[in-house]
Amino acid sequence: MKINNNRLLLNWILISVSFLMVSIILWNTYRFFQKFKEEERVKMENFSAAQIELSKTLDLGGNISDLPLKVIQSNTTTPMIIEDSQGNFQSKNITLKGENNQLYLKQLSEAYAKENTPLQVIYQGKVLSTLYYGNSVLLNKLKFYPMALLLIILLFLGLIYFFYESSRTASQNKLWTAMAKETAHQIGTPLSSLIGWTELLKNENIKARYIEEINNDIKRLKTITDRFSKIGSVPQLLPTDIIKATKTATDYLRSRSSALIKFEIELPKTPCRVSLNEELYNWTIENLVKNGIDAMKGKGLLKIVVHSNEQYVFIDISDSGKGLSKAQFKSIFETGYTTKKRGWGLGLSLAKRIVEQYHKGKIKVLSSEIGKGTTIQISLKKL
């Protein structure tokens, strides 16, 4: 237990460290994006200042300095639109399409104004031009990077949740396995006493048929004990005649069921061999039959038919109960699903696990009609 707790603590430490690292990367990326955007703003302010300096030089009739021209020419990445005092638009680092470029640039300048605050080129109290600029290609790409990281964090959280649920489910499975084995151990003690008492009863004047029925029930209890003790172990599959195994399972259930339940059993006369763990198969048939009897509320027709084709053998178990809606065809096999006031909802989910996980077969609701009954089919591969 201490080792498991240490391992769980280590897992949570690793998850926490990983989450912290991803969060730091996301935060640093956001900071880098904001800093890059500020630098773009500074570049545009320098561009605006260079234009003012250029206007001063032209106004004074002096020689144009190399510095303003270099600042203006060096910006080759930021898309910008310059609107002069007459409302005419010029562009830089923008690919123009179509003939009506002025209208296109006007619309684009409005979009840029929403992205970044426009800069005004003011000289001697007059607005010479207004500078609109958008985000550079690199900045636009970086804009989606935090979103991608956020998506990664969400996926990471999803993995953490999946890991937690898987760990919790594994722990629950271990607990149920331990409880089942302990139950089998607890049942074993009084069962041994019952066997001893049965031997004593044989010496009394009691009808042999009664002793035989008691022995049958004791054998049944031993079978149930074996089932519980083997939970969590890999079952051994042996070549078995499915016809004989089905008859054995149904004969016992029929002898222990109410006279109000009518059994109809149709079995082929020729043997049909499959890889089978007979104890688990009997358990499956028992669960399906009991489920059918519950659906009929203790009164009705229960029909068991075994048929086959070249590759598979099919076991159809039909009842004349209340039936199922199509929405319930799959949900009835889920763990915990039950329509009864009392019950754990484990019978059909256990049957599904035995058939599909252990025997590599299939179990499904073949047909059902509200008020008329349900047919559940098991299919197993023939040898």
Q: Which range does the strand content fall in? A: 15-25%
**Cα-atom radius of gyration:** 40 Å
CATH hierarchy class name of the largest domain: Alpha Beta
Overall geometry comes to: elongated
Number of domains: 2
Could you report the average pLDDT, rounded to the nearest whole number? 78
Number of helices: 9
Classify the oligomer. single chain
Strand order of the largest sheet: 6-8-9-11-10
Distance between the termini: 44 Å
Largest sheet: 5 strands, mixed
Give a count of the beta strands, DSSP E runs of length 2 or more. Answer: 11
Give me the CATH superfamily of the largest domain: Histidine kinase-like ATPase, C-terminal domain
Low-confidence stretches: none
Briefly note the structural class of the backbone. alpha+beta
General description of the model:
By secondary structure, the chain is α+β, with helices and mostly antiparallel strands. The chain has two domains: 2-135, no CATH class; 235-381, 2-Layer Sandwich (Heat Shock Protein 90), CATH 3.30.565. Helix content is 57%, strand content 18%. It contains nine helices and eleven strands. It is elongated, with a radius of gyration of 40 Å. The two termini are 44 Å apart.
